[in-house]
Amino acid sequence: MSLNQIDQLRKSNAEYIAAAQKPMKFICNAFAGSVPFFRKNCIVIGAPTGQGKTTLLANACMSVMMQKNPQTGKKGRVLVISNEEASEDVFNRITALIKGFSYTNHNEFT
């Protein structure tokens, strides 16, 4: 590696460690220390169909969007990549959580 590449790696590593020292809350305090949830980390959720992946995802997304990142001071942003769920379903589940609706009661959606 060149000296420039080594310097860049050291800088990136210092930023990564700083973010790891100030993790965000993953859904609720019960997961504190269990899920390494901070900037530059990727969380993958996998399970068979119908086991609650999208419900877990909606809760994690809402949690991120409602709290400020302790390192940046900005509200969290979320990128969801799914090969199973429609974007409308993820959006509706997060909306239901925010509004306090039961997602199974689609009559409450307008």
Task: Give the SSE map.
Elements: H1 3-20, H2 53-66, H3 87-99
Helix pairs in contact: 2-3
Features:
single chain; 110 residues; mainly alpha; 3 helices; 41% helix
**Helix-strand pattern:** HHH
Mean pLDDT: 83
Q: Please tally the helical runs, counting DSSP H or I stretches of 4 or more residues.
A: 3
Structural class: mainly alpha
Taking pLDDT < 50 over at least 5 consecutive residues as the criterion, the unreliable ranges are: none
Biggest β-sheet: count, sense, barrel?
none
Strand % is: under 5%
What's the Cα radius of gyration? Answer: 17 Å
Q: How many domains, in number, for the residues?
A: 1
Number of strands: 0
Estimate the global geometry from the Cα principal axes.
Answer: elongated
Distance between the termini: 57 Å
What's a quick, concise take on this entry?
The chain has 110 residues and is mainly α. It has one domain (3-108). The protein is built from three helices and no strands.
